[in-house]
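Worked example

This section walks through a single chain of length 282. The input is the sequence exactly as stored; nothing has been trimmed or padded.
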Amino acid sequence: MTILKMKNNNADSDLPVPADNLMYLYCITAGAPLPESYKDVYKIKVIEVNGLYVIYKEVGADEYSTDNIQLKIKDAVWLDFNVRDHLSILTSLMNVTTVIPFNFGTVYRTKERMLQFIADHEGDIRHNLLFFEGKEEWSVKLYFERKTIVDNINDISDAIRKLDDQIKISFPGKAYMLKKKKEEIIQNEIYDFYIKCSARISDILCFSCIDTKLLTIQQDERADNTEDMILNGSYLLLKENIAEFHASVDKILDDYQSTGVTVAVTGPWPPYSFIKMRSTNE
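Given that input, the structure is written out below as tokens.
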């Protein structure tokens, strides 16, 4: 399970652990959000501060102090359960209001310190809430099937096509050397092909976006893996452009059928990738 990140995680990490409860901050919203059922089930509390709504709950230091949470996150079951709950709260709120999300595990020592953070960053918070109104973040991961690329290499590479022509008319010794050379060229050609495709696909996806953030390509080290990720991106969209964005994904699938293309589109997500907020340490 990936922990979604934002600045200001464990905001009071340099302070002694108190004996009583800590303040676990989910998000700040533009409107009074949650139904009472959520408040009852998740023990969520809401504070209104100058028209901003602070969504939080009280948690025990036995789980969420800086030292203890570092131990807890090594427990995959605990982490999965709590991260899913965190995201469930955020996505439910996103259905009814604009949300500024905070990282799983953002904890304050006292309510006063939490509210002081909000007071210190009120301008940033309001700017973000205004900016994200009517927008959603979507994630796209795109993969090519390597074997399919190799099988169709002659269709995408003039260099390989010319080399094959040479191999056909060469004596066995030279043909053997050319085939070894072909293996090296194929790797380079595939890499160049991925770079060109990634750039073109990015242009297609960005056409209907407000903003884009390209993320690190994730390498799958499994021996049986046959797919190469060539794109990992987050895309900020106006809600009215979401259908157009999905149509762009369909176009990519059509255009790149011969590559064994796979596209994983997920969302909407809390807009972590596009938040601009200063650190409390500044």
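What to look for: The beta strands are 22-29, 45-49, 52-59, 99-101, 107-108, 135-145, 211-214, 227-238, 262-269.
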